[in-house]
Amino acid sequence: MTANQVQGPAIRVQGLEKSYKELRVLRGVDFDVARGSIFALLGSNGAGKTTAVKILSTLLKADAGTASVNGFDVATQAADVRESISLTGQFAAVDEILSGRENLVLVARLRHLKDPGKIADDLLDRFSLTDAGARKASTYSGGMRRRLDIAMSLVGNPPVIFLDEPTTGLDPQARIEVWQTVRELADRGTTVLLTTQYLDEAEQLADRIAILHEGRIIVNGTLAELKQLLPPAKVEYVEKQPTLEDVFLTLVGADGKDGTPAMTALSAQTRKEQR
Ligand SMILES: Nc1ncnc2c1ncn2[C@@H]1O[C@H](COP(=O)(O)OP(=O)(O)OP(=O)(O)O)[C@@H](O)[C@H]1O
Ligand SMILES: [Mg+2]
C-alpha cells in the first residue's frame, strides 16, 4: 500500500490555514518536502510550527487548504498518513521505569510487529545504546533519552518522520549526537521534517529551510539560496558571508515584537562566538 505512494513529494502543503478562535496562526502555508530530504521549518515562539506539524500528523484539523503526506491526504486518508509517519515531540515519550530495550520492545508490540526483541536490539545498536539497553531510561542523559525517543519513533520504519524541536534543552555534545542520528535517517531515505528555533541546527542539517512568519512561509530555499538574499557584510577587515541568522533576523525583524527572547539570546551568543 505504502509502496505504491512513491511518486511526488513526501509532503505537500497548499494554502493551509488554522485559527484558534480569532488568533490566525496559519494564513495560507505552502511548501513541499522532497523524499529523503531534511526540511527545516524555522520560526519564532508561537509562529505556528507545532500547529503545522500537528496538522500534518493528523492530530489537528486544518480550517482550509490541503496537505498530503506520503501521497495520502491528511484530512481524508488519516489512517494511511498515520501508518506512514512518526512524530517525536519536544517532550520525550520515553517510559522512565522501563529500560531502553523494554521501551523499544513495548513500541514494537504495540505496533504488532514480528520479533520485537530483534527490532529493539537492532535499533539499540544503530543508536549506540547497546551498552545502556538494559538500564532504566531514568538513568540516561538528556542526549541518550532523546536518541532513544527517536529510535522508538523509528520502530516499523516509517518513511516520513516529524521532529518537533528535537534538540531543545540539550547540551552541545548531545545536540551533535542527535544531528548525526537525523543525518543517518535521511541517508537511509527517510524524509525528515524538523522544526527548530536554533538557526545553526537548520544550517547544519537541512537540505531546505523555510521560515514561517505571521502565518505564511516568507522564504523557502537551500541555505545557499537564503544567504544570497543578503549581500555579504564587511566585518572589520574580513569579508564575511551573512549567516542564516542574519537572513532570518532581517526577514523576521530583530525587534523581538513576536516575543523572541531565545532568538535574541542566541543571536548575541553567536555574535560573541564570531569574535
Ligand atoms: N490549542 C490552542 N488553543 C489556543 N491557542 C493555541 C493553541 N495551540 C497553540 N495556540 C497558539 O497558536 C500560536 C502558535 O502556536 P504553536 O505551538 O504552533 O507555535 P510554535 O511555532 O510551535 O511555537 P514554539 O516555538 O514556542 O514551540 C501561539 O500563539 C499559541 O499560543
Ligand atoms: Mg512548538
TrEMBL record:
One of its GO terms (biological process) is response to antibiotic. It comes from the Bacteria. SUPFAM superfamilies: P-loop containing nucleoside triphosphate hydrolases. It is a peripheral membrane protein. It is found in: Cell membrane. SMART domains: AAA (SM00382). Keywords: Antibiotic resistance, ATP-binding, Nucleotide-binding, Transport. InterPro entries: AAA+_ATPase, ABC_transporter-like_ATP-bd, ABC_transporter-like_CS, ABC_transporter_ATP-binding, P-loop_NTPase. GO terms for molecular function: ATP binding; ATP hydrolysis activity. Residues 11-239 form the ABC transporter domain. GO terms for cellular component: plasma membrane. Pfam families: ABC_tran. Gene3D superfamilies: P-loop containing nucleotide triphosphate hydrolases. Belongs to the ABC transporter superfamily. This is ABC transporter ATP-binding protein. It comes from Streptosporangium roseum (strain ATCC 12428 / DSM 43021 / JCM 3005 / KCTC 9067 / NCIMB 10171 / NRRL 2505 / NI 9100). The lineage of its organism: Bacteria, Bacillati, Actinomycetota, Actinomycetes, Streptosporangiales.
